[in-house]
Write a structure and sequence with these properties.
binds pyridoxal-5'-phosphate; single chain; Aspartate Aminotransferase, domain 2; alpha/beta; 395 residues; 19% strand; seven-stranded mixed beta sheet
Length: 395
């Protein structure tokens, strides 16, 4: 039985997997079992923010693993406290954090905070949360219901009550009633097609919600940790959310999620918890990732690379106007909108043949989430291969 057969035999078929067997990686380059190189414009769906085989991260993980991996949240966890302090200081927001293990879990924490906020004198006064069509908030039953894509609610019901979907930001005020406690949005919809929200519209919404005492939850699971060029997309949009969630890029591949909130005393001991969340290993890894990226940002290199990458994609959108409608995104969260879903799949498959990895997203988008530390040479090589794929597809 080969590996592919083994996978098909023993692993549940939740993904339409590609059966390449990667053996190791170096920054934005992966090598398969025949030592063929692939340019990775996916970073494991926005996770491997400091690249593959990052020595500084690996050393931090090894060092921590030899001392303590896990001890439980019943005792002080040094790297957890350090990471929380670092994130609060870098964000500029007066908040506290809770650490979980994934994006969906971070969002569950955010929803629990909002629902507790809606309780007054132990009575549920407000519980409704407005989210957006095309949003994505995760795969647990509640996060799935928060996700405003009806196609994803076909099975698994009954779902928890209290989620209301808005077509767009402008529609949100008209959906508010006396039971509304929060609005939850992504500033750039990732899975929904790398769709940035308008900055002024977001700022106006934030102001409006503050007046109404309705919480603003920003799901930064994909946009957070320098993906857009700032620590948080909320910094870029110059807003002050009540609750922010993080996950993907935070641990550089080590599973970690976080919910941060200005409601510093919303939870009392026993209200929320996690066995694994915030353990020594994941918080030590995340601390190293955040420190590395902060230095990288301060050096000016992050912005340089982002601008360079954007130029390359804009050229492609122009040069291949018969396939693409437009170029979208911010920072290292970018997409090219294909003219059809059929084209979208063909582009991704053809790119794979040329050994460049890219992602699918909604609205027929071909999505690029490279490691934030990608080199200029890796960008050039990946773009060259991608162009070859497009030429073959159009000839
Ligand atoms: C990926 C993602 C999630 C879900 O994260 P998991 O770690 O897979 O649970 C939630 N929200 C957004 C915006 C995401 O991109």
């Amino acid at each position: 039985m080969n590996l592919k057969e083994m996978d098909l035999q023993y692993v549940l078929h939740t993904y339409a997997r590609n059966y390449v067997n990667f053996k190791y990686g170096k920054n934005a380059t992966l090598f398969d079992e025949e030592n063929k190189d692939y340019i990775d414009f996916t970073s494991g769906i926005g996770v491997v923010s400091v690249g593959h085989g990052n020595k500084r991260l690996a050393d931090a993980i090894c060092d921590q693993a030899k001392k303590i991996i896990h001890i439980s949240n019943l005792y002080l966890i040094e790297p957890q406290a350090l990471l929380a302090k670092r994130l609060v200081e870098l964000s500029g927001y007066d908040m506290r954090l809770f650490f979980a293990n994934s994006g969906a879990e971070a969002n569950e924490g955010a929803i629990k905070i909002a629902r507790k906020y809606g309780e007054v004198d132990d009575e549920i006064k407000r519980y409704k949360i407005i989210t957006l069509k095309h949003s994505f908030h995760g795969r647990t039953i509640t996060a799935l219901k928060a996700t405003g894509q009806e196609a994803m609610h076909t099975y698994f019901g009954p779902f928890p009550d209290g989620f209301v979907y808005a077509e767009n930001l402008e529609q949100i005020p008209s959906l508010i009633d006396e039971k509304t406690v929060a609005v939850m949005i992504e500033l750039i919809q990732g899975e929904g097609g790398v769709e940035p929200q308008d900055k002024v519209a977001v700022q106006e919404l934030a102001k409006f919600l503050k007046q109404k005492d309705i919480l603003l939850i920003v799901d930064e699971v994909q946009t957070g940790i320098y993906r857009t060029g700032e620590l948080l997309a909320s910094n870029l949009y110059e807003i002050e959310p009540d609750i922010i969630t993080l996950a993907k890029g935070l641990g550089g591949g080590v599973p970690i999620g976080a919910v941060m909130t200005r409601l510093k005393d919303i939870f009392k001991p026993g209200d929320h918890g996690s066995t694994f969340g915030g353990n020594y290993l994941s918080t030590r890894a995340a601390l190293e990732v955040v420190n590395m990226l902060e230095e990288y940002k301060a050096s000016g290199k992050l912005d340089q690379k982002m601008i360079y990458f954007e130029e390359k994609l804009k050229e492609i959108a122009k040069g291949f106007g018969d396939i693409f409608v437009k170029e979208v995104g911010i920072g290292f969260m970018r997409g090219l909108r294909a003219k059809s879903s059929k084209l979208q799949s063909q582009i991704i498959n053809k790119a794979f043949d040329k050994r460049v990895l890219i992602l699918k997203a909604g609205r027929n988008t071909v999505r690029f989430l490279p490691p934030l530390t990608i080199t200029k040479e890796e960008i050039d090589e990946g773009i060259e291969r991608f162009k070859e794929a497009l030429v073959e597809l159009t000839s």
